[in-house]
Specification:
106 residues, mainly beta, elongated, 0% helix, 4-stranded antiparallel sheet, 8 strands, single chain
């Protein structure tokens, strides 16, 4: 038995999602505990086959619960120029929104 899955676009990136999956997406600005609907569904697949949109599927959406905001891994940015004693070290941690997929509606 194959579970229903979908490919959605949010924050300029594409994700393959199934029901119950928890993933980190670009910051949505939605408070914790709210429900968000991702309506840019590119593809829905499952037991009955695959449906592909052009570019998006009409009326399809993925409903998810917002589990909070998290920070990603630290990225070190190190600038260096030889022979002139120039060194700059900074770090960056990207903010993400953690969501849990509730349902996929075709």
């Amino acid at each position: 038995m194959t579970a229903i899955y979908a490919i959605v676009e949010t924050g300029g990136k594409q994700y393959r999602v199934t029901e119950g999956l928890t993933l980190d997406v670009e910051l949505l600005g939605v408070p914790d505990g709210d429900t968000v609907e991702l309506d840019k569904v590119l593809l829905i697949g499952g037991e009955s086959g695959i449906t592909v949109g052009a570019p998006y599927l009409e009326g399809a959406k993925v409903v998810a619960d917002v589990a909070g905001e998290v920070k990603g891994e630290k990225i070190i940015v190190f600038k260096y120029k030889s022979k002139v004693r120039y060194r700059r070290k900074t770090g960056h941690r990207q903010h993400f929104t953690r969501i849990q997929i509730k349902s996929i509606q075709a």
